[in-house]
Amino acid sequence: GMVPAFLVIxxxxxxxxxxxxxxxxxxxxxxxxxGPVFKTLLVAGPILLPCGWxxxxxxxxxxxxxxxxxxxxPLGSGxxxxxxxxxxxxxxxxxxxxxxxxxxxxxxxxxxxxxFALAVFAExxxxxxxxxxxxxxxxxxxxxxxxxRTAKDRFGSYLAAGVFFYFLWQILINMGMVLGLMPVVGxxxxxxxxxxxxxIVNYCxxxxxxxxxxxxxxxxxx
Length: 222
Known about the structure:
Structural class: mainly alpha
Shape: globular
Number of helices: 9
Helix content: 55-70%
Distance between the termini: 39 Å
């Protein structure tokens, strides 16, 4: 897991590399680690994290600095975050209605069909719509996690758990990015953001989880 993540980050693709590392970390926790190993990870993580700063490209560092103060460059690196916040805030409680969002329809919001699709959704459907979407995502993730826990074999359990963490981190990173809580790293929101290959992969992963779930009811004949 570490080698693919390192190679992807070197490309450079910080978002995908981060997703792989978080996926690996999630699987390690799911499998269970001993007390000393867990303490080592907790201590080593904060120590190694600052070292990663020196491995980042200049534009990646700029994204992190922009997160801390997007108003410093409102027409440049901070433009995405500022416009996203405006779109989300303008949706208020019930939203402006389908295709009625000013930020998206007047093209103030960049990448509205991919990375910032959630901002468009929030502007059009408001806080209530976002809560409904969040509940649906939670039910989706809980079903995958339940499949992992009830799988009849260890491989199926780890496979479903990997899919669970894959979707979990993508959802959290994208939402954090759109809300201005995380740097813009180009992680799409599953089943919402535009993208043919990403959608195909997502449905393939769902199919794998369904296969793992189905095998709970398959018994070998004696």
